[in-house]
Amino acid sequence: MKLLIPVAFGLEAVVKRQLKKLGYCHAPATNGRIAVEGDWTDVARLNLWLRSGERVLIELTSFHAETFDALYDAVQGICWEEWMTPHSRILLDGKSYKSTLAAIKASGGVIKKAIVDRLTRKFRLTTLPEDRERFTVGFSIYENEVSVTLDTTGDSLHKRGYRTLAYTAPLKETLAAALIDMTYYFPERAFADPMCGSGTLPVEAAIKSLNIAPGRNRDFDFLHWPCADKAAFAAAKSDALDLEIRDARLDIFAGDINEKAVSIARYHAKQAGVEKQIRFKVADLRNFTSARDHGVLITNPPYGERLEDEASVRETYKALGQMTKALPDWNVYILSGCPAFERAFGRRADKTHKVYNANIECGFYCYPSKT
């Protein structure tokens, strides 16, 4: 099968490195998707192990279409009966760019009709109950080239299952994992997030260091499909559990001035099974120090989207800049959606990666150690 992995803007290189580590060396990227070849074992492994991909899709076909008739004929030609049953619940998810078939809702209606017509004919039925397992059929139309996919994941891969309590401006788990992979962090080094919020960055650092499969505690849509190989997933999960590093001793600090934030972060770490690997503290970032000469500091401070917050945010950035000057041999990384970040922080970054956090254009400002 051809498997497609949608990737958020700016994270393609990170996900390709993650795939290479998993053994997928040939992984070309096109239009925000990375392609690999595989079977049900690969579907299982990718869903379990991908730290920063959005989901895992099976591409059923691709073709050129400029009319609804051409779209209908090509979709009806797919052997849907080999994937679905009469009880399968069919959902549509589509997008179109620079194409004559620009109406997403209308195109989705044509695709749904083509699928239903094929299934009712093959199963010799007049209606389909659609009351059981979910199949999300994706269609992407780019310059009249259509790709039709099945979503094996279901809820996006950022939903690991451990972050269940709400807190202000949460960072997606997949983005947090990608940011960590952009740094010089490895398990032997100290890690600190002095503005941890709900704890996503330190939890993801611990998950990575302990070699925990990010998807080990969640469900996936393909596990409910009659056509899928459930044994492949059972074997992949068993292998993942065997690969966990249970006796590692990590130096991970998670602090925040807000007591509620620290409580939530601690709870999320417990849900993820890494609470004992993280030191939590209610503390002002200005007071952060470390006995370790070298380490990695990553944090995601407020951006100041509201005018009344701008002065407070600038003060926070200034305090961050002053605090990190006392850590000359640490690698410092800050995610911010504030264009004036560097000025307030007091230093120009050695490198800045452009990424998006909750549709906000951000810079990931990198200040690597000089030693």
**Structural class determined from secondary elements:** alpha/beta
List unreliable stretches of 5+ residues. Answer: none
The main β sheet shows up as: 7 strands, mixed
Kindly report the spatial arrangement of strands forming the biggest sheet.
2-3-1-4-7-6-5
Number of strands: 14
SSE pattern, N- to C-terminal: EHEEHEHEHEEHEHHEHEEHEHEE
User: What is the percentage of strand-forming residues?
Assistant: 15-25%
Number of helices: 10
What is the residue-averaged pLDDT?
Answer: 95
Distance between the termini: 46 Å
Based on CA atoms alone, the radius of gyration comes out at: 23 Å
Overall shape: it is elongated
Fraction of helical residues: 25-40%
Task: Please give the structural blueprint.
Elements: E1 2-6, H1 12-21, E2 29-30, E3 33-37, H2 40-49, E4 57-64, H3 68-76, E5 89-97, H4 104-123, E6 134-142, E7 145-151, H5 173-181, E8 190-193, H6 200-209, H7 230-242, E9 251-256, H8 259-272, E10 278-282, E11 295-299, H9 310-325, E12 330-336, H10 341-345, E13 351-357, E14 360-367
Parallel strand pairs: 5-6, 8-9, 8-11, 9-10, 11-12
Antiparallel strand pairs: 1-3, 1-4, 2-3, 4-7, 6-7, 12-14, 13-14
Helix pairs in contact: 2-7, 3-4, 5-6, 6-8
Describe this structure as you would to a colleague.
This protein has helices at residues 12-21, 40-49, 68-76, 104-123, 173-181, 200-209, 230-242, 259-272, 310-325, 341-345, and strands at residues 2-6, 29-30, 33-37, 57-64, 89-97, 134-142, 145-151, 190-193, 251-256, 278-282, 295-299, 330-336, 351-357, 360-367. By secondary structure, the chain is of the alpha/beta class. It has a 7-stranded mixed β-sheet. Helix 2 (40-49) crosses helix 7 (230-242), helix 5 (173-181) packs across helix 6 and helix 6 (200-209) runs parallel beside helix 8.
